[in-house]
Amino acid sequence: MPLSYLEKNKKKNLNDLFKLISFPTVSAKSEHKPDMKSCAGWLKDHLNGIGFKAKVYPTGGHPLVYAEYLVDSSLPTVLYYGHYDVQPPQPLELWKTGPFKPEVRDGYIYARGATDDKGQTWCQIKGLESVIKATGTLPINVKFLIEGEEEVHSANLPQWLKKNKKMLKADIAVVSDTAQFSKTLPAVTFGLRGIASCEVFVYGPNRDIHSGSYGGAVGNPVNILCQMVGQLHDKNNKIAIPGFYQNVKKIDAWEKKQFKKLPYNEAAYKKDIKVNALHGEKGYTTYERTWVRPTLDVNGIKGGYQGEGAKTIIPSMASCKITMRLVPNMTAKEACDKLEKYL
Amino acid sequence: MPLSYLEKNKKKNLNDLFKLISFPTVSAKSEHKPDMKSCAGWLKDHLNGIGFKAKVYPTGGHPLVYAEYLVDSSLPTVLYYGHYDVQPPQPLELWKTGPFKPEVRDGYIYARGATDDKGQTWCQIKGLESVIKATGTLPINVKFLIEGEEEVHSANLPQWLKKNKKMLKADIAVVSDTAQFSKTLPAVTFGLRGIASCEVFVYGPNRDIHSGSYGGAVGNPVNILCQMVGQLHDKNNKIAIPGFYQNVKKIDAWEKKQFKKLPYNEAAYKKDIKVNALHGEKGYTTYERTWVRPTLDVNGIKGGYQGEGAKTIIPSMASCKITMRLVPNMTAKEACDKLEKYL
What we know:
The structure is a homodimer. By secondary structure, chain A is of the alpha+beta class. Chain A is about 30% helix and about 20% strand. Chain A is built from 11 helices and 12 strands. In chain A, strand 1 and strand 2 form a beta hairpin. In chain A, helix 1 packs across helix 4 and helix 2 runs antiparallel to helix 4. Chain A is globular. The termini of chain A are far apart. At the A-B interface, helix 7, helix 10, strand 10, strand 11 and strand 12 of A face helix 7, helix 10, strand 10, strand 11 and strand 12 of B.
């Protein structure tokens, strides 16, 4: 039985996962290029060792690992996606143990990549391995794509996908970069919101000028940026950009029903992030707001003097970074164009 | 004649001014404490040398220089105010010559303190000296107060003033920390707007949270701060805080008339700060807006991610620094209280 195989090999599998995690595969830092290469090679060897036909593919950036276990062309084919690169582990002083020295504490693995996404990818590899070992084969064809640039916008992936379209042909694709709903409730994630990013700059005088001498006569870029951002939501917390919701796919009845079935503990949700109240689009539940409705958030803003004490200036410029979360039938270009026109 | 005395001693007076400027009297930096002391001592000696009775007074912070030239108690007494401390000269890389190595280029002295306020104070000292030298005395009693903490909020001045109230008694006070109207038009400044400063903090979740996972359900401190700041002005660019103008002194007819007599070149004004249009309270001229009307400017704002590229977060907090310029009959407390209530 696959499960008993997993139980029997628990220690070895955990050790191998620790080995996978211990590669410091920070894709954003060029000094980790050798680690990226080593990790990709290790993954390839491991997949070959359990019966896959695996290969490392170079790209314009970090290499990716592709592996196949093809049983019979009449069977359905599943394409798994995962990534072996991780976010930078800074700030280091907040780690109790090294970010690449995995350790189990209270039943959790503490290390960068234990989740997002080495852990999830590992679960799927080990799950498939257990079926192969217990039954001698798989009931489906499996293709595995594990990239090394997910945390740096997958810059080289689209080109590689296009080039290898035929090899990747599959009936279904599974993204192994999602989460369980809770510790006791696994989840099949059937959609993730997209994203559109932009940056807004407001320029005023050619230099920071004295707010005592000029204040009242010259437009202040920070005040004006705030007015611009302030009008992006209306009183019901809907996005006030004209036509923003025009193409938004309505929530299906079955989705609404499924969402309602999920446990929801607003008190715990609020407690986790220490807020007194939630704040979102009127007429929608928290799950609807975060899963199937588009949103607009300023991720950062800056302008003028930010140091200690006061500095009486009208700043020369102000800027902010905005991302919008998109849902089916919206495009990033459309969202950005409408935002730009409105501003 | 006083003027011919000045003409004859031009070189010596310029050299002495250069000496005064060359003390790096940055009151904000404690490493300049010895420079502050040296400069105050030099000023005292110089004033004693031209006939004043001068003394350095220690305060809780940097010392101040007080000097008197008392002719006759039946004559009117003028109290001059100036300061010998300066703003930090950073960023140093933008100086063509050292900030404390004065140099004349194209008829201007380039150095920190050439204006604001060593230059202005020097003009008044030398003006008085020229009359003393040419006529043997002064037609008025003169008191001189030159402090060393103007750029750091004059923290110790009020206490010293209170303690020395009797000594400072005067019929008129002249602040020598203002400007000419233009190169060819001297000015008697009869009023300066006051100031009220505050800082606004908006707190959201206890940490930066992922805008993909939480976006739409949780209030974003930057968006909310922008909404708060965005509503501080109305469509006519009046400050929208209820009751803000309640106690504001109306412009007197004679002021309005005097302002109108002054040359005003809007094209040059705009060109100097490189803006395409001015932006201020409806119904007022530029001089009225900058001299006798209260204003509100955000001097700096920050929140969330400000580095390169995007970071998809709902920031844990956002803040901004606001200063309001006040006119007669307003108080800082009143302005801040009304702002706080409105926000």
